[in-house]
User: Fold these one by one.
Assistant:
Number 1:
Amino acid sequence: MKVITAVLVAIGTAMALAAPTTKRAVYGDKAVIGYFEPLHGFPIYEFDFSKYTHINYAFGYMWKGAPDPYVIYIDNAVEGPKLKELVKRGHANGIKVIMSIGGWYGSQTFSEVAADPSKRKKWIESAMTFLRPNTLSDDAPIPNGWNMDGLDIDWEFPGRPGAICNTVSPSDTTNFLQLLKEVRAHMDLEFSSDYKTITSAVSIFPWAGADGSFLTDIRAFIPVFDWVNIMVYDVHGPWSTSTGPNAPLYNAPAPGDPFSAQQALDTWTSAGWPKEKIALGTPFYGRAFTTTVNMNTRHPITQYAPHTGVAPKGGPSDSNATFP
C-alpha cells in the first residue's frame, strides 16, 4: 500500500487536510487537496495549480425541496461554466478534480437515499454523471458528463443530526456502508481503466452507531474509501464553552473543549482506521469571539476565556451569528 501525505486546503473558503490513498491510486506518495467553493468569486485563472494534487469542488447538493430530492444538484447556470473551467484547467496542470457531495446544508436526503435500494440506484447514476466524459458539444447548456476524477462524500453526519433540516435514522451508518459498497462496485466496473477515488469528509469522531454513540470498530469501511478527510477545524468557535484555537494540535487545557488533531487521530486509529488512509484537515481561516472579559488584562494571559456566543461580523458575507 502506498502512503500519501496530503494537505487538504480550501480555496476561497480555505481548509487543509493531510491524506493517503490506496495502492490503486496513481498520484505518487504525496497529495495536497484543496476545496473550491464556486460562489466566493475567486477566479479560477488565478489559481496556482502547482500547489495542489487534488481539488474538491464544493458542493453537489441534495435538497428535500428539489424536483427530485434523491439526486445531486449544482446550479448549472451559475456553477456549470466554473466547473467546466476548473476541470479543464486542473487536468491541463495534472490535477485531479473531485466532486464533493453534501456539506453542512446539502446533506438533507442522504439518510433516505442510503436506506432505499431504488434511491441508491438513482443516486449512484446521478453521481456517475460527474465522472463520465461529456459526449455532447462543448457549448451544450447541460453536459451529460463532467469528466471528474472521484467523489468526496461529505454526509454531515450519518446517525447524527448535523443541520436541523437533515433526515436522521439510527440505521444511517449501516446504510451508508451499503451505499458505499454499491458506489465502489459500480465505479470499478464502469471505470475499470480509469480509476476513480472515493473519499469522505468526516468528523473528529467516527460515524455513529444505532444508539447514537460513536463506533469503536470501523474496519468494514476501509475497503470502500481511498482515504477520509478528518475535519480538524471549528473545534472552538462561538458555539463552544470558551474561546480557543480553531484547530488545536493537542487538547486544550480547561476550560477549553477537549478536542484536537491528536485526539482525532487517536480516536480514528483506535477504532481500526489505518493511518495511511487519513487526511488531516487544517484551516486557513480563523474564528472571532465576543468575550465577556478583557483578555489583555487577565493574569495569567490565556487564550481561553468566557464569551457571549455572538460572533463579531467579519467580511461582507459574514453575519453576526448568535449561538446558544
Number 2:
Amino acid sequence: MVEYIVDDAVMRPILEDMGREWVPFREGNPEAEAGYWDNFIELWFRMGYDFVRFEISLPFPSHSRLGEDPTKLDRSRSWAETHEGVIVTWEDYERYPWPEVEDSLFRHFEYISGHLPDGMGLIACHAGGIYEHVSELMGYENLCIALYDAPDLVEAVCEAVGSRMVRFYDRLLQIDRLVAIFQGDDMGFRSGPLLSPEHLRRFFLPWHKKFADMAHGSGIPYFLHSCGNIYVLMDDLIEDVGIDAKHSFEDAILPAYEFQRRYGDRVGTLGGVDVDVLCRRTPQEVRRCVRDLIERCAPKGRFAVGSGNSIPSYVPPRTT
C-alpha cells in the first residue's frame, strides 16, 4: 500500500475510533509536538503501512489567498496567487529573503525516524517541488510571460530554489531509516502540462534529475507525485530524470491500470483509486473499485495501491 498525504481532518476521527486522544500540533510546544507525531506514526502503523510519509518545506514566503473551508479543522484553505508573485523584477529577486537550510528544520524528521515501530521506514521529501515553488514565487501568469521576456530571471529563481533544495536533500539523506524520496511537484492540469514541455525540460526537469541522482546515490528510490496530464513528459521523466515510480492518477485523464499497461515495464505505478470515487461512492463501492484495481495491476508487479492523489479533508473517513 502507498499514500501521499492524509489530512488532519481525516486523521482525527480515525485516531479517535482507535481510542487515541487527538493532540493538535503546536510548533515549539514539545509535549504537543510529541503527542501529534506519536498519533501520526500510530495512524500509518495501524492502517497497515510499512512506512510513514512526511514532508516539510523551506520557508519561501509568497502571496496566497485564504478562503473558508468547513471540511478543514481550522475551517480555512490557502490558495496560491496565480497573478503577480513576490518576484516580478530583478529588484524583487535581490530583495527576497532567501531562506537558509538549518538543522532545526529536520527535527521533526528525526523524531519520526527515532520513534518508528520495528519494520517501518520513513518516506520523505521537501514539501513542494521546484516548479511549484517557482510558480508561486513569480505568480503563474507572470512566470508564463517571463519565460519569454525574462528567461534569465526565471533561471535565476530556479537556481535559488533548486540549489536550496539540493542542500535540503544533502541533510535529509542523512536521516536514519529513510527508505525513499517521494517528491511532489504538480506540473499539469486536465488536458496537458501547465507550461510547454520545452520550458519544463529546460528549467525544471534537470532539478528533478539532481534530486533523483542524490536519492539513487544513497541507495534509495525517487518517486514523483505530479498531478495532471503530464504524459508528454513521461519518457523524459523515466529515461532522463530517472524516476522509479509515478503517483497521482485521475481516471478522467489516464487510469492507473492504463498507465501501468503503457509504462509498467519501465516504472512503478503508485496509488490509483480516484479521489472522486473516495468522495462520492459508498464504502462497498469503494471496496469494489479497490479490488478491481488490485486485480488489474498487482499481478504485473511494480504496483502499490492507494489513493489517486491524497486523502484530503473532504474525503469521508468511512471510505478510507
Number 3:
Amino acid sequence: LSLSTIHQRNEHGEDLLHSAVTHQDIDLVRKIIQAGGNVNSQDYAGLTALHIASVEGFYGIANLLLKAGADVNAAQKQKITPLQNAVKEGHYEVYSKLNTNYDLGL
C-alpha cells in the first residue's frame, strides 16, 4: 500500500482512510495506519476518520484510530468534534472511549 494511494482524494476530499472507515473495513484501516497514513487528515468539510467512526458508532475503528494518534478535539468546519458526534448519535461506548482519551489530554 503506497502513500500516494493512501493520500489520493476523491471529489469530496476524502482519502482512502475515510473510505475504509465509511465501509467499516478495520483491516484496511490497520494497513493504512501501518503504512504511515495520516489519521488526522480532513476532507473538504473538515471531517476526519474519527468523525466518521464516532457518527457511525464504529467502536473498534475509533479505538484503533485513537491508538494511532487521532485527535479527539479535531473540529470539522461546523466546529463539531468526534466527541460531540458520538453523544449526538447516542454512541455512548464510543463517547466513553473518546472522553477517556480527552480527559487524558491525548
